[in-house]
Amino acid sequence: MRAVSIRLRVALAFALAMALVLAASGAFLYERLGADLSRALDQDLRLRAQDLRALVAESPSSLAQAGGGRLVERGESFAELLGSDGRVIESTPPLGSVSLLSRGELAAAKRAATYTDRSAVPGLDEPARLLAVPLRKNGRRLVLVVGATRENRAETLHALGTELLIAGPIALLLATLAGYALAGAALRPVDAMRREAAAISAERPGERLSVPPTRDELERLGETLNEMLGRLERALERERGFVAEAGHELRTPLALLRAELDLALRHADSEEELRAAVRAASEETDRLAQLADGLLLMASSDEGELRLRRETLSASDLLASVRNRFLWRSEDAERRLELEAPDGFRIVGDRLRLEQALGNLVDNALRHGDGTVRVSARPANGGAELHVTDEGSGFPEDFLDQAFDRFTRADGSRGSDGAGLGLAIVDAIATAHGGRAEARNVARGADVWITLPDAD
User: Domains of the chain (ranges plus CATH)?
Assistant: First the structure.
């Protein structure tokens, strides 16, 4: 089933709203006109009653005379004069001698003017409204009844209802067509942006949507979409750069591995040469495995899927585990590897990931630094800081701002070998823990550390 377009849905909603408005307006007008006609009829009856009271006071045949004048219109209005006992004293044709009031109505009319509605009166098969007023003549208490048919009111309301039934649907149709046209005009910029968005591709970077200067939701939508395109473009550029750098980093160890294997296969003349070639191939294989692990970790970090197994750890045990991994290297390099952690100090984190991050920092310090390497843990702002310092020449000053960027290497004293992922991995692990990684040069050497937030 094909979905209904927004333009049509807006037009239908507009039509429904207009139908409700027109129906409510028509009902209001109908009721208001009916009330106004009723008030006008009551006013007309009061005026006629006043005039007829004056006529009755002057002449006993006044009602008969009024039947042919302006006070009582033939077929539309009538009047009769009742005695205090309800007997008809005088009436206009075609009422005859039939009283228009019941006993209760007569009693009420003797006290004050009273309005009454009738579905029909003698000689007239039409609804009518009566006004009974008391009067005195020659010392007698009489009741004068004047009335008029409600046919004029009914005809007027019927005519209004007919006009509303004809004009209402026409007005609704015109309003719906106008709403459809207005919805199309309002959505035209959206459709234009849709066509432009469909034409944008990764092969043509820098393209953006044309934003209409409407200063409304459409303009904000266009600006938001352009900002999103910018973010996607930057993410794509980072992804392409990541893939290109990864390919470049993988190519070198693969080439060396192949060369070593070719050497062992074709040119090794002795067992010692063969062992040396296999040893070199093994080292390159380790480098490839580390690089692959680093790339997978960075990819998981980018996708927000670097999973952690958090647990409460003894800081001294964590640092001791890292030292045990690198103790043989520090001894071979005749460099001291020291630990520093407060007694009983505990941190919360993923042991394997924290060991990996600290291992990268210690490896950097042993590879590129000098002197004693010190690994320390200390409390900070309710959390913890894990530091690795050395006594080398430190980082180049212009490198500190990009030290944790992937595939970046420092020139000079810190060396330029490796894949440039070590510090980036440290930063990814720190970020996954909700902390951060920082680096600085101290009076002698470099200080790189991880900040872990409060576990609570």
Answer: 6-154 (3.30.450.20), 217-302 (1.10.287.130), 310-452 (3.30.565.10)
